[in-house]
């Protein structure tokens, strides 16, 4: 009995040490992310890199961690000076936390500056500080609206005629009467459905001058009031599960319960992956505006990939990052693998992309790139400051719930919530 | 086979192998672990409760963290734990006790099978159990819970978005996992009650209920106290069950938030280690107070039985 | 006053009354309700994840969509890291169980067989640990582990909990039942105190090791929070952590999550069915105290 125990002990100790001992020949780039889907892109690009640059091979070591967990471990590792990866995906909602004080991320100017004219600049500006670029985004994140064209046709609505929010409300009423279903949904725990209504007015959830919270601004109030009104009329419903990424929402939308949804272009792969029954029924269109002439889109969301100051091969890592996200081939793959609207504008008009035959081309009724080309000059950037995380949280945790579920009075609620943002 | 260790060695080795030193050597690993991995962190928690902890800048800020505890979110968490604990106590002590009595009696067929079957849920990890319940109580009309209430003509419910049903889900999860275990505790307690007591009671013409009141209940007291203690502990330390029900540890208006959930969010997700420690300290005090009260209260009873 | 024949023996033939039948039905119903969620999840593991999204968790038998595909994904290294997580969990569970058993037995023996100063004080310390939730000290504990450079390693997970209070408690109780003569016999033979433990006591502890081994093993296998905090590298993740990463803010990979959850329960259930006695002894360890 004792001998057995000792044997097991030795074996397990040996095994644990053995696994630690394998050192790779290629340069290992340690990479953290929170989204499993992103990994596919990196793997594809790593293969291409190794094929194109056999003299400096890289080996990608990926760790996928839960969202909050990853961001926090990263923060602790950077602050304590050890344990951080070489390269990491940081979501825009958390990026400001890593720029406080002296950023522990390496400036990427060397690779970014040469490409500034080729990319949608705001997608690196949002991750910059004091003239240094610290992160590169996956996508433009252009906000658009997805219509269930099949359902709309049944109700006798042509989505291309919807140009203003008034048009939207009227079409919604007609849709409700014809089908008995809500025309769209609002999220109680996320802000994608809401930001376009604010930005097209020229507003923002943060003050443009100093970045302080701006929840009590008239633009925000107008957007919330509009939604509240439509909810009460039954034209808008609360998204089941609380947001447009909940499995309940996917199920309901997939079953044809709603006529439309306001989400950015990177939402395209949610449709293909989680709502397969709607294939060939969904059309993508530019968003309505309050008055003609206002910008019909805004750049939402984003994950900035950064290189930490603890990277073992900073230059190699930076080059690989640039290869993945700034180069033409990289941007082509961003579209092909992930279905995101890439940041390198020349890629949008490339026939191989526009006329390609990806699952996205097969799924959507119209061509996503046509929409992108139509709105490409109408995509303002959001304001970024250290108040972005807590302001987003305030909206996601309290404001929407109170506005939509409890129909709170906006004149009292908004200043109250704005003051609470620390 | 025996080697003469003690005869000729001097100094430390002799002491080490002596009978006097032996107990200390045996207990030493515990002392080490206790001091290094328990006492130090505990003291750190207390100290950090009065500090603001950022890398390179750790400074004392007096009672500021304590004042921050005056936060509606924190009170919501405490309220949630209180209600949860009360409900689980109400359900996870009387019923398993009764079930255990039933399973203990020879009149029940297949007792061993049932005892084992009811025990199975605890074998799943909280991650798996939480996922299962999350799926069961989804909002879709096709989700299991909605299908079941649909049979009774009740509409699909948004289970995880309403405070009342959230408590219900958490308590159901706890009952599902722990009923079998508590049954076992009571069973082992029951099996230490001598049969003769019941026999002589039967002869005296006692009914089942009287037997229960005068024999079973008092003799089960130590077990009941034990189950009570761990249930209270479990109720206040509950975290993972609620964590698994919601993505990203976010429930609307904090309806599923627990004290440790709040600690995790502040201390770990937002990196406010000082404040997180203060929350932990508060929880420690709550748990200690309850334990002391309980020990006192039941300590008196235990004495009279002896 | 009783002049009747001697009382019937204890083992009277059970008579099947209405009460018996009712009890049977009751427990059958209860068991059905309790095992139902597990049945539902097993069924769902044979259906594609999109099915789960489309209709939610249900118990419909749908042969047209059911297959073993999800399980195939588990074993395919390109599709998922499941086997890596499984292997890590296995490794850590074995290592932690063996170490904890040995150390706890060692300590429990000390408490059981010897009288020494501070004994009661120290034992009270054991009880104190049981009263304090780990989560209260986990933040500074994390900092300590980082400082000791065992973060992101197996040792960071195991060391803080290698002297677990419940096993120590259990072993003390178990060993107190052994006669002291054994010790004296050993000493007469010239064996050292430690030799006695290793050669005489350990072999006698098999049933105790069985019970505690399973208890500790099960806890290690299902352990989630502490390993989540300690581990950073994807290739080191254990099963619960790995399964949790499949729940992302953007949508959940139910194919692997559901099949993986079912597969994770299997070793425990097998262990349970074979060693029920030990499981039960282990779980009820703390309750039998004065």
Shape of chain B: globular
| Range of helix content of chain C | 55-70%
Any idea what the CATH superfamily of the largest domain in chain B is called? MetI-like
Largest contact between chains: B-C, 104 and 101 residues
What do the pLDDT scores of chain C average to? Answer: 83
Give me some keywords for this one.
heterotrimer, A: 422 residues, alpha/beta, D-Maltodextrin-Binding Protein, domain 2, 2 domains, four-stranded mixed beta sheet, three-stranded antiparallel beta sheet, globular, B: 306 residues, mainly alpha, MetI-like fold, two-stranded antiparallel ribbon, 15 helices, 2 strands, 70% helix, disordered C terminus
Describe the model.
The complex is a heterotrimer of chains A (422), B (306) and C (290). By secondary structure, chain A is an alpha/beta fold. Chain A has two domains: 27-138 and 301-354, Periplasmic binding protein-like II (D-Maltodextrin-Binding Protein, domain 2, 3-Layer(aba) Sandwich); 143-298 and 362-420, D-Maltodextrin-Binding Protein, domain 2 (3-Layer(aba) Sandwich), CATH 3.40.190.10. Chain A has 19 helices and eleven strands. In chain A, the strands form four sheets. A four-stranded mixed sheet of chain A has the order 2-1-3-11, with helices on both faces. A three-stranded antiparallel sheet of chain A has the order 9-6-10. A two-stranded antiparallel sheet of chain A has the order 4-5. In chain A, α2 runs antiparallel to α14, α13 (314-325) crosses α14 (328-338) and α18 runs antiparallel to α19. Chain A is globular. The N and C termini of chain A lie far apart (61 Å). Chain B has 306 residues and is an all-alpha fold. Chain B folds into two domains: 2-48, no CATH class; 64-305, MetI-like (MetI-like fold). Chain B is built from 15 helices and two strands. In chain B, a hairpin with a 2-residue loop joins β1 and β2 (57-60). The longest helix of chain B is centred in the last third of the chain and has 33 residues, at 273-305. Chain B is globular. Mean pLDDT of chain B is 83; it is low at 302-306. With 290 residues, chain C is mainly alpha-helical. Chain C folds into two domains: 18-67, no CATH class; 82-284, MetI-like (MetI-like fold, Orthogonal Bundle). A two-stranded antiparallel ribbon of chain C has the order 1-2. The longest helix of chain C is centred in the middle third of the chain and has 32 residues, at 82-113. The radius of gyration of chain C is 25 Å and the shape is globular. The chains are: A alpha/beta (422), B mainly alpha (306), C mainly alpha (290). Chains in contact: A-B, A-C, B-C. At the B-C interface, α2, α5, α6, α7 and α8 of B face α1, α2, α4, α5 and α6 of C.
